[in-house]
Amino acid sequence: MSTKLIDKLERDRSLTREEWTELIRNRTPSTAGYLLERSQEIRIRHYGHDVYIRGLIEFTNYCKNDCYYCGIRKGNHNADRYRLSKEDILNCCAQGYELGFRTFVLQGGEDGWYTDERLADIVASIRSGWPDCAITLSAGERSRESYRILREAGADRYLLRHETYDSRHYGMLHPPALSAEHRRKCLWDLKDLGYQVGTGFMVGSPFQTPENLADDMLFLTELNPQMVGIGPFIPHHDTPFADRKAGTPELTLFMLGLIRLLLPKALLPSTTALGSIIPNGREQGILAGANVVMPNLSPAQFREKYLLYDNKLCTGSEAAESLRDLKARMESIGYHVTVARGDSLNR
Length: 347
Ligand code: 5AD
Fold this sequence. Notes:
By secondary structure, the protein is of the alpha/beta class.
């Protein structure tokens, strides 16, 4: 039965809520095996054996939000806070460019210090310094006007996970000040302003049901984003979810496979979270249909401070060293890291 649904998904690129739920709830090792064969084939059809890299610059761990799962939540008074200066950020880009990165991702908490003026100034400097590179922002919820200013300054892409579509589930993961509706409004604004948009969700977050994941898949169908980032929820010891169970690599890989079938041309990162819960997680993600990895370019002394969850990968090593390691890992499974902007074929 499930393999029929997988065939239907590949053919129609849409399923009903009931079908998604059934496919996810009743998955078995054998249906997962079938799915991952299909998703790998489709990935290779569109993107060959190329792996795109994104240089991740974690520019601030200050955050005004208090998401129950996140290690840099405002309420975590044990977090050692830092902010990168414009100069720090431009140095990361210079180093990254030398290493072969052609996309820079500026990711941070929702930090009021980075006003539109300051952030736009940083974006404009990257834009003029490295005109052949894509600039991706991942700086949370901002006003439409703010997104417009940043786009004008030269940002091409924006990552903002919807986290979970269902408002009730969203409310179990976030304080009342945040809402699923507002999050989704930001995503529609970003799309409308001409950004290449990335969204996504955590797999196995507390209270998540197969129905929630089905709703996430329906939302992806509707939004049709250029990128989708998913990774397992991993508890952080200084959060209200410290004692919750982590999401499994098995379900994460299954969801990756489903997303590749739903959005054959999308950019799908094999995430750090997946690489952090199992030794070969990022390789397995690529084999399940992912085509992007996002190595860290942040200065080494700040790495361990940007801790969204426990045991996060690559907090110690230098950018050059972790890139070497990553390239070898990709070669070991027959894939190759490429020097390219890596724009989405999903237009
Ligand atoms: N485990 C896994 N992913 C997390 N994120 C935040 N906290 C955690 C956690 N404990 C993810 C969120 C966010 C992205 C930057 O990191 O989905 O959007």
